[in-house]
Amino acid sequence: MDITYKNVISVDEVNAIRKSMGFRQNNPEQLQAELEGSTLIVAAYDENKAIGMARLLWDGGGGANIFDILNPEYRTQGVENELVTRTLDFLRGKLKPGFGIQVDIRVWRGQESLYEELGFQISTPERRGIPMHICLTDQIELT
Question: Which of 11-15, 97-101, 131-135 shows the lowest per-residue confidence on average (mean pLDDT)?
């Protein structure tokens, strides 16, 4: 296995990874806007096949979000760790004296230890409030 990493990925490749995870396909126009609006993209490829991606949203201030997806066949091979590490290294390179960046990421059950090894802490309602969400869509199927 020869995994390479790039800072670009196509809409079709992202949707192929989503499909491998059992997620619905995103609208290509909306997905293109997500990619273009990202601060950083780190994509993993096994030969020429896109297998994973981390996408950073950061406005240059004190808060950032990482969204990552990975073909389940590659879960135990260190790819997700590398995607997130490269994203965190980018943010560390932006730190100036006195700066701090709160980085949030959504973790699937059973993956907590992977992210704890990278320095993430499990958020508690007492420290961070309760995570909430709303999904605005005209589609019936939500993920």
Answer: 131-135
Amino acid at 81: N
* The residue count for the chain: 143
What distance lies between CA 37 and its chain's CA centroid? 14
Residues 6 or more apart in contact with residue 11 via CB below 8 angstroms: 26, 28, 31, 32, 35
State which amino acid sits at residue 37.
G
* 58 vs 104: CA distance, rounded Å: 11
Note the pLDDT of residue 138: 66
If DSSP states are collapsed to H, E and C, what string results for 13-78? HHHHHHHHCCCCCCCHHHHHHHHHCCCEEEEEEECCEEEEEEEEEECCCCEEEEEEEECHHHCCCC
Cα 37 to Cα 26: distance, rounded to the nearest angstrom: 16
Q: What is the pLDDT of residues 9-63, one digit of tens each?
A: 999 999 999 999 999 889 999 999 999 999 999 999 999 999 999 999 999 999 9
